[in-house]
Amino acid sequence: MRRRTAEVRERGFTDHVLVCTNDRDEHACCADAGGRAVHEAVVGWLRDRGVLWSEVYVATTSCLALCSEDGTAVAIHPRGEWYSDVTPADVPELLAREFGPEAGRLGRSGPAVADGG
Ligand code: FES
Questions:
Q1: Does any ligand 1 atom lie closer than 6 A to the CB of residue 18?
Q2: Cα 99 to ligand 1 centroid, rounded to whole Å
Q3: Do 47 and 39 contact (CB within 8 A), yes or no?
Q4: What is the pLDDT of residue 108?
């Protein structure tokens, strides 16, 4: 086992976007609610702003316990923000809210304006 925290921080890591793509048969799940498409939209938005895999890492995950048939669950850490029912069309607004329109607000700062939600 190798602890690589310092190495990742030195590379510039600030945020981790987790997109649920979990699939299951008996209940609503993100795989059936567009999880892969949301992941692609997140990757594209971050890539367009030059922060993908430099500052912001992205991963598909298993269940985030926010299951819905209406969209995908997304979590952003270490800021500790959670969303459900995310569609690909929602991704630009979600990421601009979290990171700023040009991804200039990275790290633990979170959204500029709290909305209570
Ligand atoms: S299946 Fe995605 S949050 Fe549960």
A1: no
A2: 23
A3: no
A4: 75
